[in-house]
Amino acid sequence: MTIRIKRAYEPASSHDGSRVLVDRLWPRGVSKERAHLDAWLKEVAPSPALRTWWHHDPERMDDFALRYRAELDGHPLTVAAVAELRALAAAGATTLVYGAKDPHVNHARILAEYLAESPE
C-alpha cells in the first residue's frame, strides 16, 4: 500500500496514482480540472467542531491526532469512507490531497499514518 500526501495547490503527477481530496471544504482557488481528483471523501476529514478547536495549532497536534483517530474509528459514515479509501490504496498508489499550508501540521498526514498502521 503506497499512500502519499500532497497539497491541492501542487501540480498533479503521474506518480500520484489515485488522487483523493480528504478535506471537508473545497480548496480555495483550485478548479476541478486543476485538482485532477479521482474521489472526494469529505467523511474522512475531521469534524467541523474538531477542526475549529484545533485551528492547525502545532501545540495541539498530539491531542488533535488522538481525537481525530477516535473520529475515524467512531462514526459509521467515517468508517465506511475509510474502508473506501483503503480499497483505493490497496488497488495502487494513492495520494491524499489536502488544502492546509503546512505539510507537517495537517490531518492528511495523520490519516496516512492511520491507514498505514491499521490496514483492514
UniProtKB/TrEMBL annotation:
Protein name (Swiss-Prot/TrEMBL) = Uncharacterized protein YeaO (DUF488 family)
- Please report the organism this UniProt entry assigns to the protein: Cryobacterium roopkundense
